[in-house]
Amino acid sequence: MEYLDELIIEWQDKVRVEGTEIVPGPLLGAIAHCESSYGFYSQSGRYEPAFGPGGMYYRSDANLRKLYSIYGSFVSMSFGTWQILYVTARELGYDQHPVELMFDKVCIEWVIKYINIRAIKKGASAPEQVFDAYNSGNHLDGNIPHSYISKAMCFYRENITRYTD
């Protein structure tokens, strides 16, 4: 997984961690580890039923239904090593075809935007809080994915020096 290590090293400075206890390289690596076994299971999109026809978000979002008519089931999938949801990337400004997110060089940009905007900007100052936001959508909602956070923290701690000079 040398390729992912190089990609993480290249992009880690874009994670805005000033004033936090977060080390960006291990953070990105831990999410990759939890979401796709560090890229091993990242070659296809993962269907997220809540965003598909009949799903909770699909039923209540006319824009999502319109996108579904254009891209089909790709709209309700997460992609790449970090398994970023197409609809999430789109909310952050992504305007390409959903499957382009399968490429890690594309995916990582949107993962970092997510971390910066939806976690750190909203007060996440510890890696556990970022992992919570990444897995459940919000680190302030009380919906805490304990097993995900625990798994991510193990990888994070083991690799705290892996991505530093």
Describe this structure in words.
By secondary structure, this protein is mostly helical. The chain has one domain: Orthogonal Bundle (Lysozyme). It has helices at 2-11, 24-36, 56-60, 62-71, 86-91, 104-120, 127-136, 146-158; strands at 46-47, 77-79, 84-85. A hairpin with a 4-residue loop joins strand 2 (77-79) and strand 3. The protein is globular and about 45 Å long. Helix 7 packs across helix 8. Helices cover 51% and strands 4% of the residues. It has a 3-stranded antiparallel beta sheet with strand order 1-2-3.
Summarize the structure.
The protein has 165 residues and is mainly α. The protein is 51% helix and 4% strand.
Descriptive tags:
165 residues, mainly alpha, Lysozyme, globular
Counted up, domains total: 1
Structural class of the secondary elements? mainly alpha
Name the overall outline. Answer: globular
Reading the helices and strands in chain order gives HHEHHEEHHHH
Question: Any low-confidence stretches, pLDDT <50, length ≥5?
Answer: none
Quaternary structure classification: single chain
Per CATH, what is the topology?
Lysozyme
The number of helices is: 8
The separation of the N and C termini measures 18 Å
Rounded to the nearest angstrom, the radius of gyration is: 15 Å
CATH class: Mainly Alpha
What is the arithmetic mean of pLDDT?
Answer: 94
| Percent helix range | 40-55%
Counting DSSP E segments of at least 2 residues, the number of strands comes to 3
Report the β-strand fraction as a percent range: under 5%
Main sheet summary: 3 strands, antiparallel
